[in-house]
Amino acid sequence: MVLIQQFTKLPVFRQLSHKELKKVKEENENELIVGDRKFIKQNSFKNFLKFRTKVLISVSFVLLFVSYSMLNLNFVTNSWIKNNGFFTLFFCCLYIWLFWFYLKNLYQKRTKPKIINYLMFSGVIYISFSSLFQYDLIQGFLSAGREGSINQLILYNYFYVFLFNMAFYFITDIFDIDLAKFKAKKLNYYTSTDNLLLVVENEN
């Protein structure tokens, strides 16, 4: 499969058609000719990230909105202590740091730190254990709201942690797949003189 960057403000990629694939010529193992453009193999970390820019921007946009909502809720309702706001802030910051640490190791060592696997679902585990101490909350869920009481502020804080946890899992899963293909030499990046990026994935 061959993907080429389109002429857009964001690095959006499309797959080459069968007609376009017939025009692809391999000069040598480090050069490809596509039409009148020459692409040179550059398996750099910059191109690794550039290929997933759309994913990074999309997830970042969602998490910025979630972060604003979380901070606004806890400041306005003063829920930092009473409704686990500080724990929510801690886990949100934890996942931001973990992703930075993850990218740093990909750049320097091309490896995934073990701490990422250990803390991957720490947010979900926190929600599970914390909810055990919220008897009224559990009773409200089990009785569909007829008994007990559901503290919506705590639910919102749990939801924020869950969103950060799932976003971290989603984006690292995509990067892990790319990294595995890259190490197996099944994924290569080629750049042209006009900064177009060509991604060649060998499915064999």
UniProtKB/TrEMBL annotation:
Top-level taxon of origin: Bacteria
Transmembrane segments: 55-73, 85-103, 115-135, 155-175
Keyword field: Membrane, Transmembrane, Transmembrane helix
Protein name per the record: Uncharacterized protein
Organism: Arcobacter sp. AZ-2023
